Amino acid sequence: MDQPYGLFINGEWTPAVDRRTYNVTDPATGAVVGICADAGEMDVKRAIDAADRAFPEWAKTTAKERAECLRKVYDGMRRLEEELAEMMTREQGKPLAESRGEVRYAADFVEWSAEEAKRIYGETIPASSPDKRIWVHRQPVGVTAAITPWNFPASMITRKIAPALAAGCTVVVKPAQQTPLTACRLVDLFHEAGFPDGVVNLVTGTDAAAIGDALLKDERVRKVGFTGSTEVGKILMRKAADTVKKISLELGGHAPFIVFEDADLKRAAEQVSASKFRNAGQTCVCANRIYVHESVADTFTRLLGAEASRLKVGNGLEEGVQIGPLIDRAAADKVEGHVKDALEKGARLVVGGTRLSEGDVHFFEPTVLADITDNMRIQQEETFGPVAPIQTFRTDEEAIAKANDSRYGLAAYFYTQDLSRTIRVAEALEFGIVGVNDGVPSTAQAPFGGMKESGLGREGGRYGVEEFLETKYISLGLK
C-alpha cells in the first residue's frame, strides 16, 4: 500500500486530528503491509457527529433503497474476492483459501441483510374497544457502533453493520488494531455502492480503550455490538449501562466436542480437525475440549493425530499451507504455556507440540494431546491456538456434565448416530450453538451467539436485524 489509509468520516478519507499513524504488519513475515490513521477521542466524536447527522434521512429511506445499496456491496465483494482475500492474509495470517472462504461468508451477511430489509414488518393488534386501533411499529435504533476483532477481519464487520444498515441505522466501525486494512477496503465498497455521506464511518487506532470509551459515553450512540474477549465485554457492558445503550456481545468460548461410541470416527476426526485447526485455532467457536468415549478413544486419537500431522504450517500466501501464524508473541506464549502445563501434569503428546518462532513471527505446530485431566489449564482456559486436547468419558451424563462445566456457552459439538441421544444431548447442552455431526455450523441465515459468559444477543438471520430495531406501540383513538 503506497498511501496510508485515513479515517472514513462523513463520506471522506481524512487523517486523524493529530495526524498520527501506525504500521500494520504481516504476522507471517513481520513486514509492514500498510499504514493507517491512529484515531483519538476527537476523531471518534467527528465520526459520531457524522453518523448522527445522517441518521434522520437514512432512517426515512425505503427498504428497497437500503436493499439495493447493500446488494451493490455484495456484488463488489464477490468481484474483488481475491483482492480482499490477499489483503486479509497479509494482515491477519490465515491461509489464502480460508481468507477466500471468509470473504464469501462476509458477503453472505450483506446479501442476507439486503433481502431481510424488505421483511421488517409491523403488526396490528385487536383493540379492547371499538373506538381504538393498536399498531406495533418497528423503527431503527439510531447510531450504532461496531467493535470487531482481528481473527475475522471481514465477516465480523459485515455481520454487524449489514443488518444495522438494513434496519435504517447509521454506523461507526472500529476494527481491531492488527487488521484494519480489510475494514478500510470494505468501507470503500460501501461508499462506492452509494451509501450517503455519514451513514458508514470508520475509525482505526491503537488505543482501543480510549476509542471504546468515546463511543460508550456518547449518548447519541444507541447500540453497541462487540466481538472479543469476555473480560473486555464485561467492561463494555458496565459502561453501556451509564446511557442504557442496547448492547450485543459475542465473547469468549471454550467449545466442547463430544465423540460418542457409535460415532463415525473417521468423519468425527475430520470435523474436529476442521473445527480446531481453522485459522490456527484462533476462533471463538473452535473445538477446545474434546471428550471421547473410552471405548473408542485409542482409535479416535490415532485418526485425529493423522489428520493433524498432514497439515502444512507456513505463510498463508504459500501454496498448500493450512496453518498460518499466531497473531503475536503473547498468543504464542499462551499456547506454549498450555502445552507445557498439560505435559507436566501427565498429558501424552500424540503429534506436534513445537513452537516455531523467529523474531516477531510465531507459528505453532498442529498439536494433539491425550490423557487430559480437568486440573490442566487447557481444560479451564480458552487456548486460541492449534492444540487439540483429548479427555475420555464413560457415560452420556458424564459427557454432558463435563461439557457444561464452563462459564462459557458459545458453541458445542457432538457426534452420534443415535436419534434419541441427539435430541437429549442437544437439549441438555448449555450453549447457543450446537453442531450435531457438524463441526462448522456457522451460516449467515442462522442466529449466532452464546449463553452464560459468552455473550448477549444474536447475529445472523432475522435475529440479527431484530437487534437494531425498536418496538413502538401506537394506540389510536377514533372520533
From TrEMBL:
Gene3D superfamilies: Aldehyde Dehydrogenase, Chain A, domain 1, Aldehyde Dehydrogenase, Chain A, domain 2. Coiled coil: none annotated. Transmembrane segments: none annotated. Its EC number is 1.2.1.16, 1.2.1.20, 1.2.1.79. The keyword Ligase does not apply. CDD domains: ALDH_F5_SSADH_GabD. Residues 13-474 form the Aldehyde dehydrogenase domain. Keywords: Oxidoreductase. This is Succinate-semialdehyde dehydrogenase/glutarate-semialdehyde dehydrogenase. The lineage of its organism: Bacteria, Bacillati, Bacillota, Bacilli, Bacillales.
